[in-house]
Amino acid sequence: MTHSQTFAATDPQQINLEPIALVALEAGRLLMVTGGKASVVREGITLVAEGLGSERTDIRVGFASIAVTVTVAGRTITRMVGVGAHGVNMQLNHALREICVEVQRGGQSCDEVARRLTALAGGMPHYHPIVASLAAGIACASFGRLLGIDWAAFLPVLIAGTIGQFLRIQLNRRGVNGFVVTGIVAFAASALAGLMALWSHSGMLSIAMSAAVLMLVPGVPAINAQTDIMEGFPTLGSARAVSVFMVLVFLTVGVGATRIIFGDAVGESVGLHNHVLHQTIFGAIAAAGFGVLFNFELVTLLWAGVAGAIALAVRTSGLEAGWTLEAASFAAAVAVAITVEIADTLPVDIRRAGNALAVAGCIPMIPGSAAAHWIIGLLELTKQSPQNLEQLVNLTFQNGLRVIFTIGAIGAGVTIVASLMRRPNFPRKARATGRSA
Question: Which tens digits make up the pLDDT trace of 107-144?
Fold first, then answer.
């Protein structure tokens, strides 16, 4: 029996189980490396396996590998595949979901599905590296304005973020370890931002240096980690959380090295207070910029901007009303998630973004600067005789709690709405591609 077997007229006892398992695993692996949460990966594997003839599919989704057991007519086979480097590519992720739905309807062979997966993974369009780099720089500069940098630091952060993202792309293409890439890019971007902010006579070097590296903050993995745990996959969620922490450690190493070089010139600065309209505008720009990094389609970038605007408008209004950062962030995440659910009922095409659109809108609320200051504070505590020990301990503890509870509040807001309103992980029908689902 060849891989090109079809199942409508095939004796179940003669079906070759191995190609079913391998093709289903490849679909799951691609969903994982493009930013899919555990439930999406499991459902995608099940849809493909069922469409190719499996009567029962048992799945184990891990951070580094995925295993599947396929059962047909009492016969079983178990296969495992390595996952590879995790990333975020929402155009590819949602195109894969459409293929899974099509395959589940039946009538396709293993060879045909394998070819389609290979062609899709190799042919999905990406933004040009220069466009992606510039989008990252604009997002970082907008993020800086959200944190309160002055206009003198805006252009330095934009340039440093752009160069940092371009360097990140080139290092990733050369296969450099992802954590090492984070450390190198964090050092280069923060050093450039600090140097140019000095030249422009900005008084906010510390904030500018932190803002220039915020494209490195793993917002999607952080929210996926919490979502996986909340949906009953604590092992994968915990592994993702450890990976997020490691990224923050290497990010801090890079920024910390820059702070050592600049010494007392860095200092500590208090960001400017900006009102709702300002935060709304720059929240929209930051979210759209991150949408480019997530490889959203052009029309979806506009919706990402709308989501970011809503998030920052609600959070800033809450903060001005005296709410805590955590409470304001939770309310903003709920508002964004509900907006995305309502938009899905309108005659607009945002299905290729799905819940990732809500995540993109919430990304500008991730406390990346607080995370960097948290780990820098921990490093300061390791010195033999740290100055102002009590104050340092208090600030470090406060920053750590702010990071944990704010990310938790954002993730909880998105997940609660998604659970109550039950958006399907996979489209009910595919878009016009020559097939229907």
Answer: 899 999 999 999 999 888 889 999 999 999 999 999 99
Asked whether 391 and 340 are in contact (CB, 8 A), the reply is no
Q: Which two tokens stand for residue 353?
A: 């973004």
Phi-psi region of 56 (alpha: psi -120 to 50; beta: other; left: phi over 0): beta
Query: Tokens for 25?
Result: 């695993």
At residue 113, the pLDDT reads 95
| Residues 402 and 370: beta-carbon distance below 8 Å | yes
CA dist 178 and 140 (Å) reads 20
3-state secondary structure 367-407: CHHHHHHHHHHHHHHCCCCCCCHHHHHHHHHHHHHHHHHHH
Nearest 5°: phi and psi at 77? -145, 140
- What burial class does residue 4 get, using C-beta atoms within 10 Å of its C-beta: 0-12 exposed, 13-18 middle, 19+ buried? exposed
pTM of the model: 0.85
- Report CA-CA distances (Å) from 25 to 71, 80, 92: 14, 7, 16
CA dist 385 and 399 (Å) reads: 21
